[in-house]
Amino acid sequence: MKLSQPVFAASVTALLIATSSAHADEVEESGKEEPAKAEPAKEEPGKMEAVKGEPPQPAIPVHRIQYDATLGVRVNPLGLELQSNLAYRHRLYASDSRALRDNYFGVALSPTLNPSVFRIGGHIEFRPLTMLNLQAGVHHVGYIGSFDNLQSYPVASADFSDTARDEGDKKGKSYPTHGFEAFGRAIALAKVGPIVIRDDLLFTFSKLELMPGDTVYYNPRFDVLAPNEGWFLHNDSDVVYMSDFGLLAGARASVTHAFYDDKIMGTSASEDNVPMFRLGPILAYTIFDTPGAAFNKPTFIASAQWWLQHRFRTGEDVHQGIPYAIVAFRFEGDLFRGD
């Protein structure tokens, strides 16, 4: 078992005390005069703090240019996507508190690419403290007409199941188009001992060039029938155990909801579209973490969530026993750091 530095230091100290006591007993029993004890060396505050306290945290510079990239594969529904960010971040204030120290205002480019959709755009970030990150951004979105996308419908009660979209694609109902998405996002964190709680709330507004008369479209990234010129939300809530060797293990609950106007609802079937809910375990393993490195935090992520509420994935079209599953690889790094 690998001992942490404070435990190792305590073990060595206990061993030295035991040895000294035994030696003193031997001297006393032999009748020899015990030599004068040397005065203990004065403690150096800095050194004791390094042993007893946590390791010193690396300073966060005023200016940073950072990047991150995530490549993921998904089933139910099927998907493959590369997400990336290139950001300039300006530290707002200096702090040694873990709850406050990672603060900044940032501007980022955040392109996304998958076999049927590409997004080019960016966002601004405001992180007033480590535990809260606020974002807002805009992307130009393009659908290239592949993998059953894009398909749109006149009303929200339309059948957008996997089977229906496969049949629609065979009939030539998939088409290329473009438009834009605007979003607002809030990420909140909390930590109690080794337990980390994270909530990621995303609101998205979209406006695409749809076929005449259509008001909704299937969004493959969120598996939702989204209103055109309207909003939908997605929320991930995680509760995980964070080990001291890079492993996180816990559970994730995900909710998706679309906001439909009454005029686009269609029949009562549209009421079954949302909300959608899934729940299951999540694992992540970070190989190493070297703050400030150009290549850092290579992390493998795996998640399997079972659909508890979905119009078509709880038995209507896809068996409920088939989970929404993701395997992903993520890494990040610092390209520039300066004060």
The main β sheet shows up as: 13 strands, antiparallel
Number of domains: 2
Low-confidence stretches: 1-38, 40-53
Number of DSSP helices?
3
Please name the CATH topology of the largest domain.
Porin
CATH class of the largest domain: Mainly Beta
What is the correct CATH architecture of the largest domain?
Beta Barrel
Head-to-tail CA distance between termini: 41 Å
Layout of SSEs?
Elements: H1 5-29, H2 45-52, E1 63-75, E2 79-90, E3 104-109, E4 112-113, E5 117-129, E6 132-143, E7 152-153, H3 162-170, E8 177-192, E9 195-208, E10 216-219, E11 224-227, E12 230-242, E13 247-258, E14 276-286, E15 296-309, E16 324-338
Antiparallel strand pairs: 1-2, 1-16, 2-3, 2-4, 3-5, 4-5, 5-6, 6-8, 7-10, 8-9, 9-12, 10-11, 12-13, 13-14, 14-15, 15-16
Structure description:
The chain is mainly β and 339 residues long. It folds into 2 domains: 5-52, no CATH class; 63-338, Porin (Beta Barrel), CATH 2.40.160. The chain contains 3 helices and 16 strands. Strands 1, 2, 3, 4, 5, 6, 8, 9, 12, 13, 14, 15 and 16 form a 13-stranded antiparallel beta sheet that branches. Strands 7-10-11 form a 3-stranded antiparallel beta sheet, with no helix packed on it. Strand 4 and strand 5 form a beta hairpin. The protein is globular and about 60 Å long. It starts with a helix and ends with a strand. The model is unreliable at 1-38 and 40-53 (pLDDT under 50).
